[in-house]
Design a protein that fits this description.
By secondary structure, the protein is mainly beta. 0% of the residues lie in helices and 39% in strands. It is built from no helices and 55 strands. The strands form 15 sheets. The chain has a 5-stranded antiparallel β-sheet, with no helix packed on it. The chain has a 5-stranded mixed β-sheet with strand order 20-49-50-51-52, with no helix packed on it. Strands 4-5-6-7 form a 4-stranded antiparallel β-sheet, with no helix packed on it. It is globular. The model has no long low-confidence stretch (mean pLDDT 93).
Length: 720
């Protein structure tokens, strides 16, 4: 609609109506020859009606002679005043691929841009006014995204790999493979911002951003490293050396940080009995983090309340609390009488463990710019809660992406003083489109995550550092982006705090960054992983495949729980057939249909195993939290049930929850208990012979050996 007129197509004619009265103003013959491919697009701009679709050459624009009009895709311009044909040219197919979408048609500053054509035509005459030269903007391989292009007055935004910005006024073209929008919807430029909804794709793992983002085109300020001026000393500064308490002396029975240790193993040598009762339960203000425990003290983050709570580990009584300047997304770290944690306000806090007094606060964010994230204000450069402490040095990252707001800065601070010891700035790298063609599934770049250690070097997704934050070289083994990192360490392809259960994300204990491969046949990989010095334990939700995606079928066969020797490495088959994969998945997988192939084969078989598992079994439990406590594996989650009238009931907690105890030696089920609350993802801890659980309804529950003071938990049958 434009200028008081409405134009529509009835498959045979274009018809123009008066917008106020509905009276017909004109109609023009324009038969659509075919609707296959969805090529029909209608646009009105500045007195001209543009129609792109399948049809035949217009008689008025057919040229000289009696040549029969040709059928095909055509772009035709009509006068909005009277419907007369102004011009016509051959059309082009749309950019969207792997789906049916109409050809894109945009008018910017009086020039018409159609589909993927590099020629811009004058709106009124149809003559070529501008021809674009894109260099190597468009990466080869794979297909265009499954949604239409978008445009502004300045840019066409093509959907090849993510968002390719085509400059209509100059040559400032740029591709943004690190972001992606969902199929059919695509991204939206509006209000001076670029809105990118969540995408279900897993290309460029470790680099592509997640979530619903609103991004500005304003140039980012230079991201400057924080200095001494960014360190605030609290009233307890310098007092930790005087602490002579059990909090200062870590024992093997303690659980002082997220997943117990710097390797993030999720295992402990403390023995927890299979016969459990509830010792105490505390209700918090909101959903908590995984608890950490040292001696007779427990600390937990009340995430949305911005608070660290310290409780007595024996009875759950409050000891102290501390409120920070923003959301705390994961557990604090206890070290040498200190409680250290990162905060979404862009800071790292250090508290005295005995009373919660502030020792120091380090402002890692370069300034106080804020954004609204999940309903709360936070820094443009947030810090995740579970900082890593190794050899008295605190490691963490501030930022969201190496491609946003100047990038990410990784810091190393002295734990006692907060002094900056080392730093590393990760920005871009932005491609030079004159030289760099790019790759379809893997690229350089970085996302922040909880930092993991192998006992010496440090890992943040696909990035490896030494203890002084020098970036260490890793070897890319194919164009699908797998990296040989040199040493076994724990990897979470979607980040350790991702609790979505998305079917293309997984954890792996391996020497590799996995790259763009599936893991349903892999050893030492699944939706949750724990390990000790000899063995890795994992649960797979998705051990099946349907063509391009992993799959799960509720209430049919359950979930795959298994154990592997730590040296049973995930492998990729190669053309030389040096890797001999073995069949180990349940028999129902034999009929799964998908592309076969290993290294370099997109959406192929993925990682395989060459040696049998130590043990494996199917269980009717969707494990959401798991801990290895010496010779027992504790797992909490939801039952594998399917109510036809409420099919999502089990997934969403309306069928209750279970806590099950397995033998680490052979996987046999030792005990099964009913839980009154659902676990938060990765919300189990074990310390001092007790088991601690964080729940989604805002509780911390302590379980210990049944006795005169501790009643039994309600048991459950294995399949309930």
């Amino acid at each position: 609609a434009q200028a008081g007129r409405v134009v529509y197509h009835n498959l045979e004619e274009l018809i123009c109506l008066d917008a106020k009265t509905g009276n017909e103003m004109w109609r023009a013959p324009n038969n659509i020859g075919s609707t296959v491919g969805g090529g029909s697009t209608l646009v009105s701009s500045d007195g001209v009606v543009l129609f792109h679709g399948h049809g035949q050459q217009q008689a008025a624009a057919g040229g000289k002679g009696k040549k029969k009009p040709q059928k095909g895709l055509y772009l035709t311009a009509f006068s909005l005043d009277d419907g007369k044909v102004l011009w016509q040219h051959k059309g082009t197919r749309g950019c969207a691929a792997a789906c049916t979408q109409p050809t894109d048609l945009f008018v910017a500053r009086g020039i018409v841009w159609c589909g993927g054509s590099l020629e811009g035509r004058d709106l009124r005459s149809g003559e070529v006014r501008k021809t674009l030269s894109l260099g190597k903007l468009i990466s080869p391989g794979h297909h265009y995204r499954c949604h239409r292009s978008k445009a502004t007055e300045r840019f066409l935004i093509w959907p090849k790999r993510g968002a390719e910005f085509v400059d209509l006024q100059g040559d400032n073209h740029m591709r943004h493979d690190w972001l992606r929008a969902p199929c059919f919807t695509g991204a939206t430029p509006a209000n001076g911002l670029f809105y990118a909804p969540p995408s279900q794709c897993f290309c460029y793992p470790g680099v592509k951003v997640f979530g619903f983002l609103a991004m500005s085109a304003e140039a980012a300020d230079e991201l400057k490293v924080a200095t001494e001026a960014h360190l605030q000393r609290g009233p307890a500064f310098g007092s930790s050396s005087n602490l002579k308490s059990e909090i200062s002396n870590l024992k093997s029975e303690d659980w002082p940080m997220y997943r117990h240790n710097t390797q993030r193993s999720g295992s402990t040598k403390t023995a927890v009995p299979a016969e459990l009762g509830k010792q105490w339960e505390v209700e918090l203000a909101c959903q908590p983090s995984q608890p950490v425990i040292v001696g007779n003290r427990l600390w937990v983050a009340e995430k949305d309340a911005h608070r660290i709570r310290c409780l007595n580990a024996s009875d759950g009584q409050d000891v102290w609390s501390f409120t920070s300047g923003g959301r705390i997304d994961s557990a604090p770290t206890v070290h040498d009488g200190l409680v250290l944690f990162g905060c979404r306000d862009g800071s790292v806090y250090c508290l005295r463990a005995t009373d919660g007094a502030l020792m120091w606060r380090f402002l890692a964010a370069p300034n106080r710019r804020r954004v609204v994230s999940f309903g709360q204000l936070e820094s443009v450069w947030p810090v995740q809660g579970s900082v890593l402490v190794q050899d008295g040095v605190v490691y963490f990252a501030a930022g969201r992406s190496s491609f946003l707001d100047g990038g990410i800065i990784v810091y190393a601070l002295d734990a006692n003083s907060g002094k900056v010891l080392h730093h590393h700035h990760l920005e871009g790298p932005w491609p030079d489109i004159r030289k760099d063609t790019g790759r379809p599934f893997a690229m350089e770049g970085a996302l922040p995550d909880l930092i993991v250690s192998d006992g010496k070097d440090l890992y943040m997704r696909r990035i490896k550092f030494d203890a002084e934050l020098n970036r260490l070289q890793t070897t890319r083994e194919s164009d699908l982006g797998e990296l040989d990192m040199g040493v076994n360490h724990l990897v979470a392809t979607g980040g350790f705090l991702d609790d979505t259960g998305f079917d293309r994300l997984y954890w792996m204990y391996s020497r590799r960054w996995p790259g763009f491969y599936f893991s349903q046949q892999s050893p030492k990989a699944g939706q949750l992983v724990v390990f000790d010095d000899s063995t890795t334990y994992a649960v797979k939700y998705f051990y099946r495949r349907i063509q391009w995606s992993p799959a799960f079928f509720p209430a049919e066969h359950g979930y795959l729980l298994f154990a592997d020797h730590n040296d049973n490495e995930p492998m990729l088959e190669d053309k030389a057939k040096t890797v001999k994969a073995i069949q180990w998945l349940p028999k129902e997988t034999l009929t799964d249909k998908y592309r076969r192939g290993g290294r370099g084969v997109e959406k192929g078989t993925g990682y395989v195993r060459t040696r049998p598992a130590k043990w494996q079994k199917m269980i009717p439990l969707r494990i959401r939290a798991m801990v290895l406590a010496r010779d027992r594996l504790f797992a909490a989650g939801t039952p594998d049930l399917l109510d036809p009238k409420d099919p999502l009931a089990a997934f969403e907690g309306r069928q209750g929850a279970l806590l099950q105890v397995f033998s680490a030696k052979d996987g046999s089920l030792l005990k099964s208990y009913r839980l009154s609350s659902l676990p938060v993802f990765d919300g189990l801890s074990a310390a001092g012979g007790r088991l601690y659980l964080a729940t989604r309804d805002g509780k911390v529950i302590c379980f210990s050996r049944c006795g005169s003071q501790v009643g039994k938990l309600p048991t459950a049958s294995p399949g309930s």
